[in-house]
Design a protein that fits this description.
single chain; mainly beta; 8-stranded mixed sheet; 5 helices; globular
Length: 232
Amino acid sequence: MCGRYRLGRGREAFKKYFGADREGYDWSPRFNIAPTQQVPVIRQDAKEPLRLLSDMRWGLIPFWAKDPSIGAKMINARSEDAAAKPAFKESLSERRCLIPADRFYEWQKQPKSKQPYCFQLADEAVFALAGIWDHWRTPQGSMLETCSILTTSPNTLTQDVHDRMPVILPPEHYDLWLDPGFHDVASITELLKPYDPQLMKKFPVSTRVNAVANDDPECSAPAHSAQAALGF
């Protein structure tokens, strides 16, 4: 699964890596992004060759849901069966997005605890997580936009830490993934593969990342560096 990630870059990263920007949009670097929080997403304009930048709440609430609390259980969608799940199938066909990140976290089970690991691209670039989104009308009548991150089987770098990993889309697949007029789910699903492990790296981090309240660079620092900074 993917339950935490990082985007420690400012607004300029959206234009540099995705060709997306929005007047007045402000994004402060985040180091421990958690479910139900607002996150930046990128979509394709349906009428113009323009990528749109906006915020959504992480945890998809299907448009037909009666209770918005379902979103806390919908932070991830399994790529292998998303097309068959009522909560995800229409979004996979009609409403896809990119979720920018520069690192993500997974926890390795150990005899008496869990060790958090940080994963990133080898060149430390910003990358795109494959996302889907939906809109839900609140009892007050306003629209709430929410999203979910697609996951896949692990690659050889992640498999000893967790049995799932988020789908990282290479840039050459951005246009097809975002195309609102493309509804061939079988072809879309072919894009949802484990990322090349040779283009990634990982390292253990301190358990500081376990607490959502902690949101600073030490959350993603290598374990020995984080411990030294905190005086351990």
